[in-house]
Amino acid sequence: MPEDMNLEVAHKLTEREEPVRESRRREEVIEILGVLMLAVAAVATAWGGFQAAKGDGRQSILYAEAGVDRVHATTVAIAGQQRLASDASTFNEWLAAKRTNDAQLQAMLVRRFSPEYRTAFAAWLKTAPFTTASAPPGPAYMNRPGFTGGSVA
Fold first, then answer.
1. pTM of the entire structure?
2. Are 90 and 112 in contact (CB under 8 A)?
3. Does some domain include residue 31?
């Protein structure tokens, strides 16, 4: 084989290897970029899961605190209703003592009123409820619209 021909074949082989190497290099870069994108996606997914779990934990804590507040509010509401029922019952006994003119029993029953009801009771008595038709029917009605009796402070 002539030397020119060898040179030409070597040159042709070299030319072919350059585009193949360049093409191979592009593929490797694309693969590396693809792997990096998948890694970023995996880290972002893990971070999102972590944040969601953290938020769920906070939500659970707040829900539990709301439950405690709800139980406390219910307890206070029931206590208030029981206190009002006790005051109403005591007021009915006071009315019976008033009807029998038992001043000692009346005074004892007034001392048994809750402080708030005792204030309303005193304001109710000032409306002259036994002689004034427009007076509220009892201390519990003092702050209700439609009654001209004084208001309870």
1. 0.55
2. yes
3. yes
